Amino acid sequence: MKQVLIDIHLADAIINSDSYTFQHEENKIALYQSVFEKHRVTEAVYDSSLIWYGKNLDIYMQVYNMALADVKKRIEKIGPIEYETDQTANADSIDIWSDSRNFEFFPASLSNTLNFNFKEAEEYASGSIFVLKLHVLGFVPAMQSPVEVHIHAIQNDTTIVVRHQIVNDGYHEMILRTLPVRRVNRVYGYIRFNESNVFYHKVLLNDLQMIKYRYGTEAANRLDGKEIN
Questions:
Q1: Structural domain count of the chain
Q2: pTM of the predicted model, to two decimals?
Q3: 225 Rama class: left (phi>0) / alpha (psi -120 to 50) / beta
Q4: DSSP label at residue 45
């Protein structure tokens, strides 16, 4: 599992550093598929492993931290990856998440809320679509509280709001569509988890991303009819 996680994170780093090449979803899928083929596992087997680790989070975090440390060492050896700014600006999609991509909810944590706030100097283009993507691990049957997700987009005097509740492990995404007639001033929100029924718990948010899609592009059009997963 450690070696698969290492290559998955390296694939994430490649995608995040070259949004021009990976602006199309099929290119991202092909890269991840190459990781599974390299390790002779299927995506279904990988997902099943994550479900098992979701019930054994302490073991998962040990493996995950070792994998992450290995990834950081490899990236440091390679050095910073440079790409052309205009390619990033003109990409159909780009990941604007700039904070830590992992977060834990547990009783002794300092906060039960993960806040996020994204704001560009020149504002985001009108009609931009924002998709929050994340993996959740650690739900147990006795839990009664969902993970609450709120995403807000400010367009002058208009606020677009998306709310969602996560009640199970696995991959989740939430889509916020802005108005095509006004530029987007900023996007902000929070992910919150309050669990009182199960005293000892640990819920992990993993691989957090906020993908911004340009309005009217092929990548954005693929989202038609898709709202929440």
A1: 2
A2: 0.67
A3: left
A4: H
Q: What is the DSSP letter of 92?
A: S
Instruction: Compute CA distances 223 → 31, 121, 138, 220, whole Å.
Output: 20, 27, 28, 6
172 and 128: one domain? yes
What residues make up the domain containing 150?
Answer: 92-229
Tens of pLDDT, residues 120-171: 888 899 999 999 999 888 777 777 788 999 999 999 999 999 999 998 888 8
Q: Give the domain-ending residue among 38, 56, 91.
A: 91
Q: Contact at 8 Å (CB) between 23 and 93?
A: yes
Kindly tell me the sign of the dihedral angle through the C-alpha atoms of 12, 8, 102, 211.
positive
**Distances from the Cα of 175 to the Cαs of 13, 26, 33, 169, 210, in angstroms?**
23, 19, 24, 19, 10
Rounded CA-CA distance 157/55 in Å is 45
Cα gap 103→163, rounded to integer Å: 19
Identify the CATH number of the domain in which residue 184 sits. 2.60.120.660
Amino acid at 145: S
- Sequential DSSP letters for 96-120: ---S-S-EEE-TT-S-SEEEEEE--
Q: What is the pLDDT of residues 47-95, one digit of tens each?
A: 788 777 766 767 776 777 777 677 667 656 655 544 444 444 456 888 8
Co-location of 100 and 172 in the same domain = yes
Q: Which residue has the tokens 């739900």?
A: 139
